[in-house]
Amino acid sequence: MRILLLNQCFYPDHVATAQHLTDLALGLKAEGHEVTVVASSRGYDNPQNHYSAYEVWQGIEIHRIWTPGLGKKAKWRRLVDFACFWLSATFILLRLPRFDVTVCLTSPPLISTLGTAVAALKGGGVVPWVMDLNPDEAVAAGWLRAGGAVERTLSFLQGWSFRRAARIVALDRFMAARLMAKGVPSAVIHTDPPWSHDDAVRFDPEGRRTFREEHGLQDKFVIMYSGNHSPCHPLDTLLEAALKMRTQRPLHFLFVGGGSEFEKVKAFRQEHDLDSITTLPYQPMSRLAASLSSADLHVVVLGEPFVGIVHPCKIYNILALGTPFLTIGPEESHLTDLVKQLPTNETAFSAPNGSVDKVMSVLSEAVSRGFKGPSVESQKLAREFAMEKLRSKLIRVIEEVAATK
Questions:
Q1: Residue 295 confidence (pLDDT)
Q2: In this structure, what is the dihedral angle of CA atoms 93, 89, 233, 269, given to the nearest 10 degrees?
Q3: DSSP state of 305
Q4: Does domain 205-384 have CATH number 3.40.50.2000?
Q5: What is the mean pLDDT of each run of 10 residues along the chain (405 residues)?
Q6: Would 2-195+387-403 and 205-384 be classified into the same CATH topology?
Q7: What is each CA distance from 385 to 171, 236, 365, 393, 395, in whole angstroms?
Q8: Would the pTM of this model clear 0.85, i.e. be above it?
Q9: pLDDT of the residue at 353
Q10: CA 308 – CA 60 distance, rounded (Å)
Q11: Which residues does the UniProt record annotate as the domain Glycosyltransferase subfamily 4-like N-terminal (predicted)?
C-alpha cells in the first residue's frame, strides 16, 4: 500500500503534530507499507531551522517544501508562509505518483483540501486527521469574523474536503460532535485521541535530578506548562497566580516550549521582574522525559471557545509520567473527562479560566503536599492512550480505506 502523509511539520521537528506524524510514518513502514511525506523545510516554531529538501529517512521518502519563514509576528507573515506552502505543495503533489491513501493533518489550515483535490484528480482515499479545526479556530480566536466572506469561503472549502473524505479522525467526542454538526456522517468519523509518547516519555528520576540541577531548580516546587503557547491555551490565569504568589517559596513556574504567546510570557516575567518564572525552548525528544519529569505539578490549559476545536494532547504524556496536574479551562471538555477518572485533590485538579484564587488554592495545596512520586492511578489510565494501542487502531483505519479504493 502506498501512503502519503501531508502536514507542515515532520521529523526532525519537535512540535506535537510532527512527533505524532513521525510515529505514524514509522508504524506504517513497520507494517510493510510504502510511505511518502510532504512537509516544510523549516522548523515550525523556529524558521531558522532548515531541513533537507529531500531525503530518505528510515525508509520513508520525505519531500520538504521551501517557505520564506517569515514567522508568526503578524497575520500577513503567516498568510504568506501558508500560501507558499500551498503553492509548492501543489507542484510536488502533482509530480508525485498516485497514492492509495492520503493522510492530511491540519497545518497549514485547510491543507486537507489540497490533498483532497489532488486525490480527486489521481484517485485514492483521503483521511483528514483533524488536529484542530479551521476556520473554526480562527473565528474563536477573533482572527476571522464569523459569517464574513473569508470565513464563508474557508468553511466551504473545509466542508467540501470533509464530504469527500473516506474517513475523518476526530480527537475527542466534542470534536466529533462539531464535525457531525457540519454534516459529516457519524459513520465516517473515527474518534481517538493522539497517543502518549510512551516509547520516549516515562518518569525519569535521574533525568529529573539532572534537569533540575542544570536549571537551578533543586530546592523548588516546580509548576510546569510545557508545549505550544497559543491563544487557544490562555495563560493569563496562571500568570496572574504566579504574580500574586511571587514571594511564596519554594514555588517556581517553568514555561517550556514555543508558539505565538511564548514571547508574552517572557515579557510578563520581565515587566514584573519575576525571578520565580523560568522560560525554556522546546526540548528535543531525547530530553523530553527528563524535562517533563522535573515538574512537581503540570498545568494544561484550554480556552473556553476552543472545546472541540483544539485538543491539548500533552495531557497523555503527563498521565504516563504520573505527575499531578492542574487543568485550567471549561467545565466540560476532554480534559475534565479525564480528571473525573482520577482521584481529585491527590492527582488531578481543575479550575475555571479566570479563577486566579482557585488556581492559587490548588498550587498552595500541592506545595503543602509535596511531590510524592508518580501516581499509579494516572499511569494506569495512561495505558488507554499508549502509542502501540492507538497507533495500531489508526493504521487499521488507513488500511481499510485503501482496501476500498
A1: 98
A2: 150
A3: G
A4: yes
A5: 96 89 97 96 80 95 85 70 86 95 92 94 96 94 92 94 96 97 95 87 94 96 95 96 95 94 95 96 90 97 96 93 96 93 82 97 94 92 93 97 86
A6: yes
A7: 12, 29, 28, 11, 15
A8: yes
A9: 97
A10: 32
A11: 18-194
Which cell numbers in the block locate residue 325? Answer: 496536574
The answer to whether 288 and 19 have CB atoms below 8 angstroms apart is no
Dihedral angle at the C-alpha atoms of 305, 308, 314, 317, nearest 10 degrees? Answer: 150
Residue 213: all three cell numbers together: 540541577
* CB within 8 Å of 98: residues ≥ 6 apart: 2, 122, 123, 124
- In angstroms, the CA 51 to CA 390 distance is 29
| Domain 2-195+387-403 class, CATH top level | alpha beta
SS (H, E, C) the chain: CEEEEECCCCCCCCCHHHHHHHHHHHHHHHCCCEEEEEEECECCCCCCCECCCEEEECCEEEEEECCCCCCCCCHHHHHHHHHHHHHHHHHHHHHCCCCCEEEECCCCCCHHHHHHHHHHHHCCEEEEECCECCCHHHHHCCCCCCCCHHHHHHHHHHHHHHHHCCCEEECCHHHHHHHHHCCCCHHHEEECCCCCCCCCCCCCHHHHHHHHHHCCCCCCEEEEEEEECCCCCCCHHHHHHHHHCCCCCCEEEEEEEECCCHHHHHHHHHHCCCCCEEEEECCCHHHHHHHHHCCCEEEEECCHHHECCECCCHHHHHHHHCCCEEEECCCCCHHHHHHCCCCECCCEEEECCCCHHHHHHHHHHHHHHCCCCCCHHHHHHHHHHCHHHHHHHHHHHHHHHHHCC
Element (DSSP H or E) covering residue 60: strand 60-65
Domain boundaries of the chain, sorted by first residue: 2-195+387-403, 205-384
Q: What does R_g of the chain's alpha carbons equal in angstroms?
A: 21
Sequence-ordered list of residues with C-beta below 8 angstroms from that of 148, at least 6 positions apart, any chain: none
Residue 4 corresponds to which cell in the numbers above?
502519503
Q: Of 250, 231, 253, 257, give the one whose Cα is nearest residue 242.
A: 253
